[in-house]
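Deliverable D2.4 — example input (structure tokens):
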């Protein structure tokens, strides 16, 4: 039963995507279609300035968002798990609120705020960065919080009793133990930014297109071959990153 579900939900759609990416025009799968298969659509992608710009924007936003969120949520998770200040629980809930807000709502809210804000973020990559940051906060927090829970408080206490100050304890005890989980969280947030479409559609402008928006534009133009080729490349990249995140997570829990 599980194998049948995977076949229908994952494998067959991916095979169709690969098939369409090798066709000069969209057609139902057939033996004649296999005879026409070529890699022209992939070549056209790498010759397209619009696609290369979208790929560069997605890479910049993915790396920037994942890095900023990993650092920020590591600090927030330490405050929630290790800190003794009041308001820790509401802070955790506040970080998790974006789970209840659709991407279109986040995009619309940022669009309204940016148009009325003196900060020149409208029409730039910064507004997409803010959307991705907000949308991915809960996931980065879960990875960081799980990492902090794995490190027993007695380890930090033992380090302090041995003469280490708080900075040395963080650098030589806590950080090495939580780093695999934080790296897995970094990869997962990077994957989320590569896939984010709903808020991107509302906030992008000419020159700030990202890969999901570029796929949408290719669909709207009827360029199904290039759309499928870009989709195949995106699936391959996300699959590789997903395996890396899984292995890092397994290593952190070992």
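Example output (designed residues):
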């Amino acid at each position: 039963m599980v194998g049948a579900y995977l076949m229908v939900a994952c494998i067959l759609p991916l095979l169709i995507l690969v098939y369409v990416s090798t066709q000069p025009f969209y057609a139902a799968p057939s033996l004649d279609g296999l005879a026409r298969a070529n890699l022209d659509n992939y070549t056209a992608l790498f010759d397209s300035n619009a696609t290369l710009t979208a790929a560069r924007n997605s890479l910049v936003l993915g790396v920037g968002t994942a890095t900023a969120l990993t650092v920020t949520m590591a600090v927030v998770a330490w405050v929630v798990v290790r800190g003794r200040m009041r308001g820790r629980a509401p802070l955790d809930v506040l970080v998790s609120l974006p789970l209840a807000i659709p991407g279109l709502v986040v995009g619309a809210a940022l669009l309204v705020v940016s148009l009325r804000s003196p900060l020149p973020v409208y029409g730039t990559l910064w507004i997409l960065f803010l959307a991705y940051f907000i949308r991915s906060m809960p996931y980065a927090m879960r990875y960081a919080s799980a990492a902090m829970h794995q490190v027993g408080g007695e380890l930090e206490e033992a380090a302090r009793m041995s003469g280490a100050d708080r900075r040395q304890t963080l650098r030589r005890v806590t950080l090495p133990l939580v780093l695999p989980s934080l790296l897995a969280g970094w990869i997962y947030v990077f994957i989320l930014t590569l896939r984010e479409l709903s808020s991107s559609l509302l906030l992008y402008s000419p020159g700030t297109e990202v890969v999901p928006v570029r796929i949408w534009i290719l669909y709207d133009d009827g360029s199904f071959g290039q759309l499928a080729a870009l989709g195949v490349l995106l699936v391959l990249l996300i699959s590789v990153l997903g395996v890396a995140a899984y292995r890092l997570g397994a290593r952190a829990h070992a």
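The chain is about 80% helix and 0% strand.
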